[in-house]
Amino acid sequence: LLRSHYQEELGHISEQLVEMSGLAATALERATRSLMDADLTLAQQVISDDAYLDAVRRDVDNRAIDMLARQQPVATDLRQMVTTLRMSGDLERCGDLARHVAKLARLRYPAPALNDKLRPIFAEMSTTAVQMVRRAGEIVAANDAHGAAELMAADDTMDRLHREVFRILLDPATTMSAQATVDATLLSRYYERYADHAVSVALRVVYLVTGVWADEQLPGAHDHFLSGVPRSDD
Amino acid sequence: LLRSHYQEELGHISEQLVEMSGLAATALERATRSLMDADLTLAQQVISDDAYLDAVRRDVDNRAIDMLARQQPVATDLRQMVTTLRMSGDLERCGDLARHVAKLARLRYPAPALNDKLRPIFAEMSTTAVQMVRRAGEIVAANDAHGAAELMAADDTMDRLHREVFRILLDPATTMSAQATVDATLLSRYYERYADHAVSVALRVVYLVTGVWADEQLPGAHDHFLSGVPRSDD
């Protein structure tokens, strides 16, 4: 009976993590739209909706800590709790990053924050990153230890797009204001970090299933400076 | 006897967290020096030394997870383990951010990455951030729930410096290349995030001592856009 209650709680936590990934995906979709369309109302919505994602995160964490206290799990069950605390942190961060994008859109309103050269690249970054976090949710739901490789491949696409942003910013033919350069630098970093956290979620599922820490594979562990472009991962 | 073994392990973990804060402080000091002096050897050292900080982090995490499994802690002891896992993550990130600074110094070598207007501001950012992470280590060692307020005040200094960087970047009288603008934007963000993680460590001690989550106070929870300057906290 205790065991079945435990499984039920685990199932609930897993559902909440999937819910968080859906919320983070919607948040970035909308944030990108608010950025592209200079849509102040939508930007405001993304910013205020983030509180709900934070609340789900607190609830997940409290459940996990409560289960640690009451059920005294060991082995896989213990890993599940530790992993839950980390995945909830990653997904909450994704929400924060979507909020940052929306805040930049709001800050520049009614002007658009991105010029015509940059818009298609950021549109693709957003689509890729949103797909990644949705996929991360599916990987959590299915306890799929093999999904991480797929997300790391998608992360290579993000790297390529990130390089493309910097190529445009640094092109002598580009004439952008300092403000536009600062904004694009920060935005590119937000999308990149969002994607990194999606990869982290998938790698934590690897740990959960295999018991082996994948720290070395975490995006945070290997920052590449690609063709003169600073790429990092705090 | 079990209890005394537990206390001994706890003491060991606390010492390792203090060690991590010292390593993170040294890393940023050296990274800043490598940036200011365009010192390639020092930059390389910071980059390679980060692996040791990562190793201490893994060791701390393994000890905490092992204690969760063996000792089945509840209440304060359980909070101690959960908090440990989070503080080790914050301090490892500080090391990553110091490494990013060193990588940027290396990328621009033999040219200096910062111009004369920006250098004194970044020097002050570095001094402030390094003091913050050292103080965070003392707060962990002393289980000091009151230290967080002090670190949040220091974080206001970081905000002021961050704003000052952007004021210079966006000043029409400033003539900086796009590359220099991108570099300064990213560097400012690295120092800012480093300081945020130092504040997080102190707030986690608040949780440990009081049992109340200070999520609302975490730098990640309230990103201010100050006088048109994007300030964020992913």
Verbal overview:
The structure is a homodimer of 234-residue chains. Chain A has 234 residues and is mainly alpha-helical. The first copy, chain A, has helices at 2-37, 40-71, 75-108, 119-142, 147-170, 178-210. In chain A, helix 1 runs antiparallel to helix 2 (40-71), helix 2 packs antiparallel against helix 3 (75-108) and helix 5 packs antiparallel against helix 6 (178-210). The first copy, chain A, is elongated and about 65 Å long. At the A-B interface, helix 2, helix 3, helix 5 and helix 6 of A face helix 2, helix 3, helix 5 and helix 6 of B.
The radius of gyration over CA of chain A amounts to 19 Å
Q: What percent strand of chain A?
A: under 5%
Taken in chain order, the helices and strands of chain A follow as HHHHHH
Number of helices of chain A: 6
Q: What coarse outline of chain A follows from CA principal-axis ratios? A: elongated
Largest interface pair: A-B, 52 and 52 residues
Low-confidence stretches of chain A: 216-234
Would you count the extended β strands of chain A for me?
Answer: 0
Q: Give the % helix of chain A.
A: over 70%
CA(first)-CA(last) distance of chain A: 43 Å
Structural class of chain A: mainly alpha
Reported for the largest beta sheet of chain A, the result is: none
The overall pLDDT of chain A, averaged over residues, is 90
